[in-house]
């Protein structure tokens, strides 16, 4: 006898299937959990290592700076140079300035007080500075020797120091070659006694205040040194006079080129507060080629400025 087959209940089949599904799924979840745990541990360790790498210790702060040992630069004393000493002893002022290293080095040494062998009050030297606060010593000083230049001179012009006369002749020849005419000498050396007469005449004509702006008192004039020359333009032997010199072609040429022959224009526009005198484009002062070159190249307007001296706008008494 054959028994009929009974159908299997649906829930029994479903339960077996679910069991088969849950077992692998559980294993997968377990594996993922293990991997996640391992990954999480590695990430934490990496983060910790990164933090350790980033946390750099701060440098210690010094409570007191260490003392800096400085080695002072040796100051050069040009007056101890045998070449300077020899030039000074020989009386060759241009050579002495050159031995300093040239006009600029000479100026720097004198202005800074590093040249005790240079006396700006010595009337025999090219670097002499005479102004309203710096008279001659002695007051009646006069050069030992004088000479007349070859150029045209006024009858009462007076001579010059021989080195100045030679330089002025050379400059006159150069100005003539440049086509602006020769130079004439309107006034050169004046003795102390002559300056007394000159100043007295200025006071009589203009009064003392105006005279002091235009003419030096006796013992205070550069002309007394034999180093100063008042010049004028001369064409075919006819001279224009000193008062018009600044407006002439020769006057403009001299303003640009006088330094090449050792001269400077002593009293220029804008320097009255320093020099105490109105501009005098005709008044040339011989300082030698070395000093004159440094003076021109440095753009100086007065010897007071050049040597770092106080301004001398007026007499002290």
Notes on the protein architecture:
The chain is α+β, with helices and mostly antiparallel strands. It has a domain at 136-289: 2-Layer Sandwich (Muramoyl-pentapeptide Carboxypeptidase, domain 2), CATH 3.30.1380. It is built from eleven helices and five strands; from the N terminus they run αααααβααββαβαβαα. The chain has helices at 10-54, 82-90, 93-99, 103-111, 162-177, 192-206, 208-214, 249-257, 272-275, 289-297, 303-306; strands at residues 182-187, 228-235, 238-239, 263-267, 280-286. Strands 1, 2, 3, 4 and 5 form a five-stranded antiparallel sheet that branches. The longest helix is centred in the N-terminal third of the chain and has 45 residues, at 10-54. It is globular.
The strand count comes to 5
What is the number of helices?
11
Shape: globular
Content-based structural category:
alpha+beta
Transmembrane segments: 21-39
Pfam families: VanY
Keywords: Carboxypeptidase, Hydrolase, Membrane, Protease, Transmembrane, Transmembrane helix
GO molecular function: serine-type D-Ala-D-Ala carboxypeptidase activity
């Amino acid at each position: 006898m054959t028994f009929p087959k009974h159908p299997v209940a649906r829930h029994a089949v479903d339960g077996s299937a679910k069991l088969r599904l849950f077992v692998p799924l559980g294993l997968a979840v377990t594996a993922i959990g293990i991997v996640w745990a391992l990954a999480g541990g590695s990430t934490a360790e990496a983060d910790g290592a990164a933090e350790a790498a980033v946390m750099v210790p701060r440098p210690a702060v010094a409570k007191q700076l260490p003392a800096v040992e400085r080695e002072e630069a040796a100051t050069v004393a040009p007056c101890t140079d045998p070449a300077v000493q020899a030039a000074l002893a020989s009386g060759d002022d241009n050579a002495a300035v050159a031995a300093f290293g040239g006009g600029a080095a000479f100026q720097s040494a004198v202005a800074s007080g590093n040249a005790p062998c240079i006396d700006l009050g010595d009337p025999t030297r090219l670097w002499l500075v005479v102004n309203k606060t710096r008279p001659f010593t002695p007051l009646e000083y006069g050069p030992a020797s004088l000479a007349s230049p070859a150029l045209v001179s006024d009858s009462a012009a007076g001579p010059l120091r021989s080195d100045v006369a030679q330089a002025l002749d050379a400059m006159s020849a150069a100005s003539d070659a440049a086509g602006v005419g020769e130079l004439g000498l309107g006034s050169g050396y004046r003795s102390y006694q002559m300056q007394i007469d000159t100043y007295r005449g200025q006071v009589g004509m203009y009064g003392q205040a105006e005279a002091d702006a235009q003419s030096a008192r006796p013992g205070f004039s550069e002309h007394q040194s034999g180093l100063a020359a008042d010049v004028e333009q001369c064409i075919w032997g006819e001279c224009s006079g000193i008062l018009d010199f600044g407006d002439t072609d020769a006057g403009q040429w001299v303003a640009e080129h006088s330094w090449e022959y050792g001269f400077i224009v002593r009293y220029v526009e804008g320097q009255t507060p320093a020099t105490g005198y109105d501009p005098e484009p005709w008044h040339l002062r011989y300082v030698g080629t070395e000093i004159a070159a440094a003076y021109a190249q440095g753009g100086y307007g007065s010897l007071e400025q050049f040597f770092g001296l106080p301004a001398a706008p007026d007499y002290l008494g």
